[in-house]
Write a structure and sequence with these properties.
By secondary structure, the protein is mainly α. It folds into two domains: 135 residues, no CATH class; 105 residues, Orthogonal Bundle (Cytochrome Bc1 Complex, Chain D, domain 2). It is built from twelve helices and four strands. Helix 2 crosses helix 6 and helix 10 crosses helix 11. Keywords: Heme, Iron, Metal-binding. One of its GO terms (molecular function) is heme binding. Pfam families: Cytochrom_C.
Length: 299
């Protein structure tokens, strides 16, 4: 009996050890960005497409104050309320004392400079597809923005979701280098995929989630409940959004639908960002959405 108990205990210890190793934060290779120099002007375009200010400016900020990334906006979910942190260049309360590698690991791997898993309310599962040059350019641009001394408020997340190591297990299930739309036959669709699946992270709101909070990519962009519990977010697949490509591109520029309605909620910020991009980018997004299969399933 003692031998059997000993075997069980050893097996439990081995399983716990394996789980600890498997859920450890996985950083990018140390030398990946060595020698790369960012272009702030190009980084501004990445910043706009990625909607960084939309989440990280202070609540109710307007105009130029939206470039002060002091954080504080609250995002309710089934797992608690996440609060956007200060990502301004302030060295004490923002990210001004980070290096490029720290920033890249946060954006592309969801790992903080101290080695903690970041919560996936920060859409690093989408940003994981970003091109290295875009990450470097974005970092260069962020360093040109105003610093804010506002401390980052803590997230309001209870047990067991406040156990950061559990996010490592979540990443094993949902972090992937694979694109949802694997076949892009031309440059326009490739650009559209990059904007939708990576920079603009459209799937984060427009795709339903499973019981563990991961995106159900078999129903990609088919719509989802609003995380704050009020209403739903519409689907973007052709069977749910029957606008032609020109109407989609115009909506992303103006916020007006073919029925003369206008964007509301968080889409106001999305349109505000897309309106600043090149027309070709809006057309690429429209082409991507029109190329989606009905029902969202890619296979």
């Amino acid at each position: 009996m003692r031998k059997a108990i000993g075997i069980v205990v050893l097996a439990a210890i081995a399983a716990a050890g394996a789980g600890w190793v498997l859920t450890a934060p996985k950083r990018l290779p140390e030398a990946r960005f060595t020698g790369m120099t960012g272009d702030p002007a190009a980084g501004e375009r990445v910043f706009t497409a990625a909607g960084c200010a939309s989440c990280h400016h202070a609540p109710d900020a307007s105009g130029e104050d939206k470039l002060v990334l002091s954080g504080g906006q609250r995002f309710a979910s089934d797992y608690g309320t996440f609060v956007a942190p200060n990502i301004s260049p302030d060295p004490e309360n923002g990210i001004g004392d980070w290096g490029l590698a720290d920033f890249a690991n946060a954006v592309m791997r969801g790992v903080s400079p101290s080695g903690q898993h970041l919560y996936p309310a920060f859409p690093y599962t989408a940003y994981a597809h970003m091109r290295d040059k875009d990450v470097v350019d974005l970092w260069a641009y962020l360093l040109t923005l105003p610093a804010s001394e506002t401390p980052s408020p803590p997230h309001e997340v209870g047990f067991p979701f406040n156990i950061r190591r559990g996010v490592g297990a979540w990443k094993l299930l949902y972090m992937s280098d694979d694109w949802v739309m694997s076949d892009v036959p031309d440059a326009q669709l490739e650009r559209g995929r990059y904007l939708v699946e990576a920079l603009a992270h459209c799937g984060e709101c427009h795709t339903p989630r499973d019981g563990l909070g991961g995106l159900d990519t078999s129903a990609w962009l088919t719509g989802a409940p609003n995380p704050n519990g009020r209403g739903s977010i519409p689907g973007l697949t052709p069977d749910r959004l029957d606008w032609d490509a020109g109407s989609i591109a115009y909506y992303l520029e103006s916020g007006f639908t073919p029925d003369y309605d206008s964007a509301g909620g968080h889409m106001v910020a999305v349109v505000e960002n897309f309106a600043k991009l090149d027309p070709a980018d809006r057309e690429a997004v429209a082409a991507y959405l029109k190329a989606l299969p009905a029902g969202g399933a890619m296979d």
